Amino acid sequence: MDAFTLPEWAALAPPLLLALTALVLFAYDSINPRSTNRPVLAGVAVVGALASLVTAVWFTLAGTGADGPDAGYDLWFVVGDSVTGTGAIDLFGGQLVVDQMALFFMIVVAVVTALVAVASYDYMAGHAYQAEYYSLLLLAATGMSTMAAANSLVTIFIALELASLPSYALVAILKDNRGSVEAGLKYFLIGALSSAIFVYGISLVYGATGHLQLEAIAEMIATGEADAYSGLLGLGIVMLIGGFAFKTASVPFHFWAPEAYEGAPAPIAAFLSSASKAAGFVILFRVFTTAFPLETTTAVIGLDWTIAFIILAIVTMTVGNFAAATQQNVKRMLAYSSVGHAGYALIGLAALTVDGGELVLGAAMMHLLVYGFMNTGAFLFVGLAEYWGVGRTFDAYNGLAARAPVACAALAVFMFSLAGIPPFGGFWSKYFLFTGALEAASANSALLLVAAALVVNSALSLYYYSRLVKAVWINDADPSLDRDFGGTPTGLYAAILFAAVMTVVLLPAFGPVADLAIDAASAVLVS
């Protein structure tokens, strides 16, 4: 069967569908302001996120943006020359690019957005600003999905702000909750500082190279035309790393994460810690593999930028895990845990070498995909506890399995997967990160410290993750507590169970996931 060929701009359908859904919600709100029709609002948001997900998966199967011919799938339609495998699709003069890595992260963003929208159906019951909430959620997702395709420092910044500005409002959307408003203000102030640092870094890189498009920057560095401005370029790269560190909640720009996650509605904490983190990492991966090729950039600035990521990875995972181990508040524990996982994902850049690094970069992408399910599910379980009025400390979670055994079983899956225990998806992603770091250690012995830090921190994380499992399954509830749980929130349960099932299913299905991630990483590194 001959496939119907879509124009190349249709490759941006995943973020465009998210943007269209946000506009539909805005239109609905303008016609019916202050609407609290949750089935319609949540339903539209979920349909839009699923449409984006299905489209991204379809394009991935069709070989959109892939090098070489497709795998022989008999699909109804393809984008551009996907069927002949001509490589990444450049749009608007190379300002945006759709390749397999972009589609991979568009899938992650769409999955998390759909889960959060489903869970929000129950969680946001009774709250004002329902239409605004779902509109902002879809707008933030649009920015994150666009970040996956951004191929210029200016489009990266625009997409970054499109993701960030709605996120500030979402954190503070519980207007009657002092913690939510305070968290939103802190998040905004630190975000404004990081944006200023990031923009200044962009200006320095532009001053040194005269370009904003990533391939053009790499060409200027390779031809030696940026040699005269090596100091300017080096400082610009450092400031870009600072801006990315904020978006990925990496040390030392991680302070916003515990405050924002604790004060935000639990579904939004799940959204920021999973989708936002994945979006931050995709632009980090693209910028440093495309604009600043390791060998040529090192020759110009006189410093191997992987050293910065080695230090950043070790410090971030260590600070995050040790801070998480000392927390008594479950939500803050998960927040610091997410900082630790940012350190794991940073290994993807720390272990890159001049000769390659496809395995370790692909492993970081795999980890972010699995993390999207297990971490989102963990935060949504906290949302379930908040819905029932359960306190935020570990002691408040004691004995919850007697009330919600299925949800608590899902929580155990999330906790053990986050710790990297088989037979859950988190095991394989950490395994590939570890083996990738060891493989690259032949070129850089410092990576042995990274691999050791990964093992030590994973062992430490098992302590505080199992502590939560022990609280819900083994510890007895305090009989003095008045625990009137009320009804069973269908949306929250559905999202939690789906995330748990995917966390388990991903282990036997890790072969195709690994192949896709490594192929996408190889294409980016080769280009």
TrEMBL record:
Key word Flavoprotein present: no
Organism domain of life: Archaea
Chief location category: membrane
InterPro entries: NADH-Q_OxRdtase_suN/2, ND/Mrp_TM
Transmembrane segments: 6-28, 40-61, 101-121, 156-175, 187-208, 228-246, 266-285, 305-326, 333-352, 364-388, 400-421, 441-465, 491-510
UniProt KW keywords: Membrane, Transmembrane, Transmembrane helix
Topological relation to the membrane, as annotated: Multi-pass membrane protein
Compartment list: Membrane
Cellular-component GO terms for this entry: membrane
HAMAP family: NDH1_NuoN_1 (MF_00445)
Protein name: NADH-quinone oxidoreductase subunit N
